[in-house]
Amino acid sequence: MIDLKKDIQYIKGVGPNKAKILNKLGIFTLEDLITYYPRDYEDRSNIKKISEITDGEKCSIEATVVTSLNVRMLGRYKSIEKVIVKDETDNCMITWFNQPYLKSQIKKGETYRFFGKMQVRNGVKQLNSPVFDVIEKNNNTGKIIPVYPLNYEIKANTIRKIIQNGLELAGELEEIMPDYILNKYKLMSYNDAIKQIHFPKDFDYFRKARKRLVFDELLTMQLGLLKLKGQNNKQLKGIKYDENVNMSDVINDLPFKLTRAQLNVLEDINSDMEKEKPMNRLLQGDVGSGKTVIAMIAAYKAVKSGYQVAILAPTMILAKQHLENFNKILGKYGIMCVGLVGGMTAKQKREALEKIENGNTHIVIGTHAILEENVKFKKLGLVVTDEQHRFGVKQRSIVISKGENPDVLVMTATPIPRTLALILYGDLDISKIDELPPNRQHVETYAVSRKLEQRVNEFVKKEINKGRQCYVVCPLVEESEDENTQNLKSAIELTEKYKNEIFKNYKVEVLHGKMKPKEKDEIMEKFKNKEIDILVSTTVIEVGVDVPNASLMIIENAERFGLAQLHQLRGRVGRGEYKSYCILKCNGGNELIKERMDIMTKTDDGFVIAEKDLELRGSGDFFGTKQHGIPEFKIANLFQDIEELKEVQALAIQIIQDDVNLEKEKNKLLNKLVESKFTSKSEITI
Ligand code: ADP
Ligand code: MG
Predict the structure, then answer these.
(1) Which of 17, 415, 488, 633: CA 20 to 30 A from 156?
(2) Which residue has the higher pLDDT, 160 or 539?
(3) CA 326, CA 361: separation in Å to the nearest integer?
(4) How far is the CA of 326 from the centre of ligand 2 (A)?
């Protein structure tokens, strides 16, 4: 049995140079290579009669050469080769360019199989630069040919050949799914599926192979998620909060009227909190829909019932902002809040920890610092995680373990389409704020190319002269060794250019993830106080920050961001009374980019955007596979394969109910699959 983890360098046809190129495609081992699936296929198996072929059609023909190959030199290296071929229905001209050596390969009177694109002009047929085989051979024609996703450094033929070598080397592949599942769902064997997905005998085999591999991926994901959730599903005895503590006491005191959607959500939460079963609720609400105030009111109920609350924010900036807001609204009820963030002095931290431990503080708002072992609560009753996608399931369970089955509220602005939410968050109850507060501004969005740079800059100046402020978000840098460093570099370079050239009469500052917490705070504080006109940043401002005077969001290289992320970024503006704008600067303009930018300019609705993202990109970027820790799909497409996903989910539930830890003999293989895909680094958020 060959080791599938074998380095690709040692595969026939690869070597150190090609290995580097393949590495860039994410291919490191033999296993990666044979699971590098085609993105499409070209059917060269279906032999057509010349008379039936229409203009523009890609086709295979079997035809006999009737003239000798004519080579016309057009210069030292340029030439045109022409020959006439015929089958029993018609004849056609074949043309190649710069391949004079064909003279020795294409022989008059011989029959070949050609594959290429037919051109028909005034009834005259011409096949351009076809590939060909002598009839007994099936090298380039006569079969279905896989088309692989490529970078431009490697030729289609080369990778095809390398994959073929890899498959030969791998030999007969061991089965990775238990028989009872294969039989029940009539699935092709793993060995056949892998071979057929690359070089299918016909399209029926291809479909069966794809079905099998999609099934594997979906089932692995579902089992992984359910296994992790297994612990949460136990019936636990939680806290029953005081029915006499009325949320409406705070609601009626707020400086604004809650929306109907916010009130509905609070009703759900109130009823959860008064039940003995621990609350496990996901609160979905678009950016700016007002989730923070929901957390405050739930916290009020918990504190007034005698419990402490932990609020986890993904960034320091956000934790600080929450602390201010909580104090503003809840301070008057005698509720004490404390912040817990990295970068506090030792003394500040010690004092905070003491207060938390002896119960002198009611609400703790912080970042990952809350997770540390020395943070001990006297009586933790409610855990709220804000912008949950930044926290993994393990991290959440650490906080939960600091209390005794506390209630949990997970808040997210990631618009997960309903079907997916049900599947991914199956064990959480879901509430949704599907309405924005009435004072919200529609953010006018434009997608522009480099050509309009000048005009955009003028527009920025105009807005600042009116007293507004502007965010500029720097591009994500693709394919760099260290993403953060690269992003940092681009942010700093851009800031210099803005400061010293384009906006030299304005106050420009930069904000990025590698800055010290204190520096970040200072910059954010200055921006809030209008001491900065233009804030250039990496995506650290993506979540939560509230600066109502900022009316302009400029996103550099917008094509590199996922739609949901663009939507989040856009949500940073339009938070005040001023007309706000989002400008998406784009490089390049293929159809997909155009379509994606079109969606952004046409809709404000995060859920519509997420659905579209899913449709256009399969698993969709919002899904943030990396952030969620969910293994990325190589072949399944959550939009296309939603029916299969449902079927697989039902199966996964059955399996887990019967065997939570996948320990039974019959599930050994499944466990191995799940373990191999969900590495220890996986942080599934639920
Ligand atoms: P998000 O859901 O994105 O976290 P926030 O909770 O930050 O949104 O709310 C955005 C802004 O809207 C805050 O300034 C908040 O005070 C305000 N807000 C929340 N609810 C309402 C409401 N019902 N009416 C008016 N303003 C509201
Ligand atoms: Mg928020």
Answers:
(1) 633
(2) 160
(3) 13
(4) 13
pTM (2 d.p.): 0.64
Residues 461, 573 within the same domain = yes
What is the chain's alpha carbon radius of gyration, rounded to the nearest angstrom?
Answer: 31
Nearest CA to ligand 1 atom 5: 290
Please provide the DSSP assignment of 106-129 as one string.
S-TT-EEEEEEEEEEETTEEEEEE
32 token code pair = 């990666």
Which residues lie below 8 Å from residue 323, measured CB to CB, with a gap of 6+?
Answer: 337, 338, 339, 365
155 and 129 fall within a common domain: no
575, 586, 686: which is closest to 628 by C-alpha?
Answer: 686
Domain containing residue 654? 213-234+640-681
Q: Are residues 71 and 172 in the same domain?
A: no
Report residues whose beta carbon is within 6 angstroms of any ligand 1 atom: 256-259, 262, 285, 287-293, 413, 437, 439, 544, 546
Q: How far is it, in rounded angstroms, from Cα 364 to Cα 60?
A: 70
Nearest-CA residue for ligand 1 atom 9 is 290
Closest CA to 3 of 40, 29, 36: 29
Residues 6 or more apart whose Cβ sits within 8 Å of residue 462: none
Bin 335: left if φ > 0, else alpha if -120 < ψ < 50, else beta. beta
The answer as to whether 23 is a domain residue is yes
Does the residue 499 lie in any domain?
yes
Based on the domain organization, do 306 and 399 belong to the same domain?
Answer: yes
Q: Are residues 254 and 191 in the same domain?
A: no
User: How sure is the predictor about 681, in pLDDT bands with cuts at 50, 70 and 90?
Assistant: very low
Domain membership of residue 182 (yes or no) is yes
Please provide the DSSP assignment of 228-247 as one string: HHHGGGS--------TT--T
Looking at the fold, whether 135 and 153 belong to one and the same domain comes out as no
Residues within 5 A (CB) of ion ligand 2 = 544
User: Pocket of ligand 1, candidates 385, 546, 573: which has the most ligand atoms within 8 Å of its Cβ, to mutate?
Assistant: 546
CATH number at residue 109: 2.40.50.140
In our burial notation (b when 16+ CB lie closer than 10 A, e otherwise), range 229-252 reads bbebeeeeebbebeeebebeebbe
Opening angle at CA 345, ends 341 and 348, nearest 5? 80
Amino acid making up residue 272? D
Could you report the per-residue pLDDT of 501-539, keeping only the tens digit for each?
Answer: 999 999 999 988 778 877 887 888 899 899 999 999 887
Asked whether the CA dihedral 510, 515, 518, 521 is positive or negative, the reply is positive
